Amino acid sequence: MDLSRNQFDVLTFLEKTHETKDPTQRAVARGTGLSLGTVNKTIFQLTELDFLDGLRVSQKGLKALEPYRVKRAVFIAAGFGSRMVPVTLNTPKALIRVKGVRIIDSLLDAVVAAGIEEIVLVRGYLREQFDQLLLKYPMISFFENPSYNESNNISSATCVRNLLKNAYVFEGDLLLKNPKLITKYQYTSNYLGVPVEVTDDWCFETKNGIITKIKVGGRSCYRMFGISYWNETDGAKLAEHIKQVYEMPGGKERYWDQVPLEYHIKDYKVEIRECTVDDITEINTFSELRQLDETYRV
């Protein structure tokens, strides 16, 4: 059976905390953001369904969560990173170190901690350098993008378009500061965004929590960060829609995110998943890198 959103939120909270001391209903309310009355009602429902044994998730409850389990993490990391020159002349952007740690490690560590075992990475520029990741993350499978230098990142998405069901998709150059954003379960397709008054970057317009438009620059919108999740249904649709857009005139110049959020937006209901500027940092330029790490100021 499908879980309601409240049932999902309560079950995943309890599943995540099952190894710690037994939580109270008040703790569940604080952890989920639901009212105490809603938590009480939802726990009663879940108990009636035999999904809970007290405030512990039963085996039947774990089985009910299984359709919402994240199956894989897909990393888009094939590009050159021209705005990061000179540091990217010899190193792919995702492998640049910030205070001694590779940028992509912040994402990979969060994926591993969430128990997501299948990791796929699309590489292109200086691709052999990504082999170093196997020493720490031997589970990574590489996909080669021979077109990375003549198209935008839609070409990377095309390489893995059949692997997007129940999957996170990451831009490989994001510095993740809050690993708790990456979880074992996701309720539905969503995209990370930070609410802003004004931005000149890529952003989302939303209505009732659903993304209605993607654009560059806006007011009272959500600044886009390149971490998204796609459920089984949407991931299956993406496989065909990415191919369609990539093969249309001018399609190679598009970004893959435009496929579900612009060209085929009527076919998807992608939720905004709100985060803060303290959760994640996008390093776009060498100047921004120097501000984060003084070793690049020499």
From TrEMBL:
Record's keyword annotation contains Transferase: yes
Highest taxon of the lineage: Bacteria
Keyword terms of this UniProt record: Nucleotidyltransferase, Transferase
Location of the MobA-like NTP transferase domain: 73-176
GO molecular function annotation: nucleotidyltransferase activity
Record's keyword annotation contains Nucleotidyltransferase: yes
InterPro entries in the record: GlmU-like, MobA-like_NTP_Trfase, Nucleotide-diphossugar_trans
Entries under PANTHER family matching the protein: NUCLEOTIDYL TRANSFERASE, PROTEIN LICC
Protein name listed in UniProt: Phosphocholine cytidylyltransferase family protein
Taxonomic path: Bacteria, Pseudomonadati, Spirochaetota, Spirochaetia, Spirochaetales
